[in-house]
Here is the input.
Amino acid sequence: MLYLSAYCSLSIRIKFLVTIDGASYGTHKRGISSVFSLFNLKEKSKFWNEAVIRRDFGDLETSISDKVGVANYTKAGNIASYLKLSEVDSMYLPVPVNFIFIGFEGNGNREFKLRVEELQRWFTKIDHIFEHTRVPHISGAFTQLYKNIDDKVQQHQLPIISHINYNFSVHAIQMGGKVSSVFERAIKILARRENVSDTRDGSDAIWQVDVDMMDVLFTSLVDYLQLESAYNLFILNPKPDNKKAKYGYRRGLSDSEINFIKENKSLQGKINEAGSVPQKFPDLFKSKRPLYEKNPMAKFAWTITEDTDTVEWYNLCLDALNNLEKLYQTKDTADTIQIKVMELLNGKNVDLKLLLEKELKSGDFRGLHAECLTDTWIGKDRWAFIDLSAGPFSWGPAVGGEGVRTELSLPNVERTIGAVEEISENEAEDRLQDAIQERFSVFGDNDHQAIDILLAEIDIYELFAFKHCKGRKVKLALCEELDARMTDMKSELQSFQDEEYDESHRRKAVEALKRMENWNLFSDPNEPFQNYTVARDTFLAHLGATLWGSMRHIISPSIADGAYHYYERISFQLFLITPQKVRHIKQLPVDLQALQDGLSSLLLPSQKIIFSPYMLPLSEDPALAMAFSVARRAAAVPLLLVNGTYRKTVSSYLDSSILQHQLRRLNEHQSLKGSHAHSRSTLEIPIFWFIHGDPLLVDKHYQAKALSDMVIVVQSEESSWESNLQCNGQSLLWDLRRPIKAALAATSEHLAGLLPLHLVYSQAHEMAVEDWIWSVGCNPLSITSPGWHISRFQSDTIARSYIITSLEESIQLVNFAVRLLTKQHTSDQTYKLFRSQERELVNKYNYVVSLWRRIASVTGELRYVDAMRLLYTLEDASNEFFHYVNETKALLHPINCTKERRVQVEFDMTTIPAFLIVLGILWLVLRPRRAKPKIN
Here is the structure.
């Protein structure tokens, strides 16, 4: 596919019409398009015209006479127009999404209830169609993350704004009260104090909810309702427990619990001696109840579930939670922590299990750090959730970052709806008395007049009425009393207009009366519930923007610039570079089995892994040691801590560009490139893993870096490295002894272009922008957890990366072939010869189109393994069509270049006299002369 890179600047933007709940959006001038539309062409395109996709070619040949065929052929002007072929501007991949609302039926926080018309009003504003995008690479060690670059000097294998668009079909589901009660009870039971030594009232303490146990609830609900064939985003609005006002979600232990274990040797002994613990949640769903037989994709849909739809799931979950509550009721702090540790040691989180085993064995717990408390989470399957009642929390760069997660980043029912919640009669009277005391405290004993007291009373009533009387759904009795008092005050002000009062008093009274005439403080029929309506709209707008961000960051994120192809086998060549030689590779401080398991998780089910570790001591390879020394740099990094303390640290790092250049020079005769030289079915990925004693990073900020033809990883002996990231006011600590998470993130970028969850390409800025809201979950791409389990969101992104690359290259190749046909002019002489090629040309084109359609349909059903089987076929079909176009062009070329030899004589009336003169002269010269008689 070497000829593809020259054709990457295709025009790919075009208007599209989306139908959502019967309303059409866009500027497309033709009829309403289904959300299943896979292709979108220019206004005059005939991509799906039956003249192109012909079912019976023989009927077409016999129905058109040669004379008519020649006329149509020559009239078309070029072959592409004759075949009605146009370039493909964009292709659409369906993406099914479910937004599942829990606690919005009127029994959740602040008894907030979502109405159907509100969801339709706000969700149809979400951009349901947008392009797949790529983030350009940046070279050099002095540029952190993916920032703006000079795009003119970069050559992109594929366009930054892709031909492939995502077509989201959104289905909103509102769960009933039983589901809400299950989650509220689960939060109450699974919450533990973050600080085990905190004896304050529960309302003042911070609580941590076990997210692993919540994972079971979310997964079971998705499976029970058979929603696995879509991406599910849960929006929770549970009614908070007054005793556990502030809570968040965490995997593992808090810092306080870790210190408790560290200081309690007897507890460590019990944990080491204990065996396995029984599973808390058995199979919660023995039967399944589909929420709908077929996911409605044709338009925006709103479904309200009845309690009868989930009663079986509700009963099973409630029984399991009740048993769990009984288990914890009689346990003290040490017993509760022991149970939790045993769960982690016997659970499915391999990273936490390995880490706990090593720390319990060593007893120092230096590398065991608490994960961030969050109010969002990305699960291992195709679901994520937002809890609007939890938190709020914050995370992101400590200094100099953008798009950081703050306490105001997520919509908050308490802050918006609760801020305008109607107060009671007693509260209203208390606030009025407070306002009176505050206002009249400025008056002295003898320095006030009656008119001044009256004006001060008016000010108090005016302010109180605007805050607590206007826009109320239920009128306060106090407001009605104040309305009557205002009538009496008007009479009192009118009495000040008598001559007995001085001019200043009369002027103040007149101004106050004019001011009161324009008031309608206690009843405004034209704007009922204005404050409450504005608050709801503000909340829903913020929620819609947050959900749109989830689609851009976790469902269909941007990927790194490049072409990422599907290979049946992935060969990971791990080069472990150590200062000194050791006897056996297993003696190195690297968990090879955990690393191999993590690398295997990056592969699709249809791919096979080849894992080949090698050991390269620097002491035995002077050239490699020189390359390492040349690439090693030191930098003075300014660091501003979250507490405001400034610190300058000198950190050692490897310059990735220099190191890459040196390694290439050392391996000129070896295969270090990312693609296999002799097979399209195997991809080789060299991973250079440098093991060093002192703290060492890559490009000043990273533990691992993905390059064009290799991955670089560094490992050192520092267990608590203070990074430039923070979480809830505390610096995030990295364990530089275990860079598996960073290595998997860098390898996934090299393999399929995956980027950190906070990065996405912005067309408005023409660069990558950051939004740290969704940098959560125990996956390699988040910062709030050291976990490295690949989520189904990420594995699907890897699969789509392969699919989009193949589709993109196929579109480019077909479009280039169409442009070649556009340059081939039609004539009478080439008609018969082209007719011999036409059948096969159209068949090959139709075959490519059918593969596009098939791949898009299978991908929309999230059957990525089935789509992978079609990629090689699509590549071959596209090449065959392109080569056949070239053959047709070569076949017609001699005829187009042949010129007919003709003698053309032009006749002009002005030449007649010249011809006559010439003829006359010739006649005079050549006329026969009369013979003279011979006279003897």
Notes: The mean pLDDT is 80.
